[in-house]
Amino acid sequence: MTDASSSDIVGEKQTFKIRRLEITDKRNGYMELLSQLTVTGSVTDDEFDKRFKEITSYGDDHLICVIEEESSGKIAATGSVMIEKKFLRNCGKVGHVEDVVVDTEFRGKRLGKRVVEFLTDHCRAMGCYKVILDCGVEKKEFYEKCGLVNKGIQMSKYF
């Protein structure tokens, strides 16, 4: 396991801690936060627990981080990364960043940038040769501030 331990971020009269997702975070607003990004559906506690255990079984190859506002315990931001193992580049690895979102209540505190840095640091520690993500045009400037560059277009087919 790489060292993706928690660290404190101090904001205006608020202290935030970045750490891995914990099974108890569903009751701290994790699913509500994800719903600010896209459709989440009605995930029961049992479904959450089962998926959490599945994801954590992948170890460092699938990391979900959260930023917790410490005084309330509320999840203020999140993001995830999956490590793809390839044959290219001498059996290299690529990090795929997904699901980066900051709660509307906490935006403007650079938490999104901190999530992206945490995830890219994890990828570097895992030996990835690059980190990629897909985003809408309206998020391009944010990700450029995080050190990423536009390398093409995204294609999708939804089922």
Automatic annotation (TrEMBL):
PROSITE patterns: GNAT. Coiled coil: none annotated. Keywords: Acyltransferase, Transferase. It is an enzyme of class 2 (transferase). It catalyses: D-glucosamine 6-phosphate + acetyl-CoA = N-acetyl-D-glucosamine 6-phosphate + CoA + H(+). Residues 16-159 form the N-acetyltransferase domain. Gene3D superfamilies: 3.40.630.30. It holds the Pfam family Acetyltransf_1. InterPro entries: Acyl_CoA_acyltransferase, GNAT_dom, GNPNAT1-like. Pathway: Nucleotide-sugar biosynthesis; UDP-N-acetyl-alpha-D-glucosamine biosynthesis; N-acetyl-alpha-D-glucosamine 1-phosphate from alpha-D-glucosamine 6-phosphate (route I): step 1/2. Its EC number is 2.3.1.4. Belongs to the acetyltransferase family. GNA1 subfamily. Homodimer. This is Glucosamine 6-phosphate N-acetyltransferase.
